[in-house]
Amino acid sequence: MPRPKSTVSLDEVHWGALKTLFPYLLEFRRAVALALLCLIGAKVAGVTLPFILKHIVDDLDNVGGLAQAVALPLGLLLAYGAVRFSSTLFGELRDTIFGRVTERAQRRVGLEVFQHLHKLDLDFHLDRRTGGLSRDIERGNSGIGFLMRFMVFNIVPTLVEIAMVAGLLWWNYSGVFALVVVSAVVVYISFSVVATEWRTRFVRALNEAESQASSRAVDSLLNYETVKYFANERHESSHYDRELAVWERARRKNRLSLFSLNTGQALIIAIAMCAAMVLAAMGVVKGKMTIGDFVLVNAFMMQIFIPLNFLGFVYREMKGALANIEKMFSLLTVKPAVADTPGAPSLQVREGRIDFEAVQFGYNDSREILSQVSFSVLPRQKVAIVGASGAGKSTLFKLLFRFYDASGGAIRIDGQDIRSISQESLRRAIGVVPQDAVLFNQSIRENVRYGRVDATDEEVMAAIRHAQLADFVEQLPQGVDTLVGERGLKLSGGEKQRVAIARALLKKPPIMIFDEATSSLDSRSERGIVASLQEIAREQTTLVIAHRLSTVVDADKILVMDQGRIVEQGSHGQLLEQDSHYAMLWRMQQQERTPVMGEESPEAPQFVGP
Ligand SMILES: Nc1ncnc2c1ncn2[C@@H]1O[C@H](COP(=O)(O)OP(=O)(O)OP(=O)(O)O)[C@@H](O)[C@H]1O
């Protein structure tokens, strides 16, 4: 199956974008051939029309005083109607048949961009602005439809039609007519190309302004709650209005430039039409041409200048469409920073052992976040990571999950360097309950099922029970079918976390990561979940980040992190005995601990960091 070129450099993209569309034309060659036949039919009918008209006019001119109803060139008139209708019919058939080709191309390219976006690394997605991105894709996609339709059915056929008309005028009358037509066309096209090039910058500026305004609006609406917390509606509106003002200015400049282009084109056409008509009128006066010939010349001029005018529009729009496609395809040129090596094998999880070996990492060159981090997690062990905010705990998980690659050292699972295996197999083997669970705007059931999309309803319900979510779900009028709202905002923080836990439990991976997964829960729910998790964790290797030290006292090993280094490790008892960093944190948490409403026992201290 032909595939469009997937990476196009920005410099070559202008015309390179056209090349990417050829495979689709080839794939649907029968539909394209049929549509081309319809096109030829429509053009032949179009060129025949002025000749029929000429004969009708000449016949009428010669009727004299006879009874006109009898002498009417009825056959010619009927033929005129039939040819006109068939010209339109062929045009419609052509569009209908070719529509399939363009729609399929749009679907394929849309899918390719979507898949590529999912392949890109976390950094790209953290930097992107969703509103602008979706507009770029939307515009690029409709640009493809436009370009394919007009490239095949407008530009080349119009030029052929013009050549045919010029030839016919030359053949039937004189070379001067052909000269007028050809010169007008050359001037018209040259003017259109130069003026359109000049306008491109206005079109680009307008697109840019539209994307900016749209990004701003989407970002603001996504942060609806934050805007309200700070009563910043006016601030948001004024920012948005500033973007809209830029858009307004860009639009005005764009319109003015379009005015100049349209006016120039109309002037060239008017001069050419006038010249041809004057020539024809002189021919009639001199008796070299009939009135029918005069009408024919007029009809031909109209016939070529209408599509020529359209050609100007097409060229203009084509430039816009190319700019849009260029922007969309430029997304495909973004290379993911984390990529599989060609033919990377799948991860084989035999026991679930994890080794970090002298791992080094920084999100950028200027700041090191992890330095020389080494530790091992034995199969089915529970290892906890504790430390101050910003110490690099979540970063460890992001590296294990290969959102980023370490700049030094290695991470191995059962002896396999995670850089040498496929990302998909790695991620299948690891379940994550993140710090901030984000849900799809679907039902609770579907959100939980996302953990394993082929899970049965019974399995989903079992996961919901294990995550202590069943009581809550029962209270809801629509139960598990309740919609959770955008990003899950209709659920409380704790409920959202429990949905995320249920989802991860359903996945049943050999390795499980909990990144402060119970931080939004009250102590009673937390204890319930921790008990469930402990039961399940016996089968799995588990890594836990916790601020509440009481939730990890049972861990096989606790790693204490500070400023990107592991400063201590051991069991809860061993670390207390060492009486160092961890022991100090433990004591601090116990001292600072104040009873929390609704808790029965005040045994759980809060981790506040050194
Ligand atoms: N995408 C990113 N780009 C640049 N810096 C980042 C990025 N993500 C995290 N950081 C920085 O890396 C450092 C470590 O972050 P990390 O999330 O690992 O800390 P943490 O120990 O999990 O903190 P917390 O307990 O508050 O969640 C922080 O200083 C943070 O600002």
What topology does this entry show?
Elements: H1 13-19, H2 22-27, H3 29-61, H4 68-71, H5 74-119, H6 122-127, H7 130-172, H8 175-222, H9 224-229, H10 233-285, H11 291-333, E1 354-361, E2 370-377, E3 382-387, H12 393-400, E4 408-413, E5 416-417, H13 423-428, E6 430-433, H14 444-449, H15 457-466, H16 470-475, H17 493-507, E7 511-515, H18 523-537, E8 541-545, E9 557-562, E10 565-570, H19 572-578, H20 581-592
This protein binds adenosine-5'-triphosphate.
Give the SSE order as H and E letters.
Answer: HHHHHHHHHHHEEEHEEHEHHHHEHEEEHH
Specify the number of helices: 20
- What portion of the residues fall into strands of 2 or more residues? 5-15%
Bound molecules: adenosine-5'-triphosphate
| Distance between the first and last residues' Cα | 60 Å
Mean pLDDT: 82
The assigned CATH architecture of the largest domain is Up-down Bundle
The outline comes out as elongated
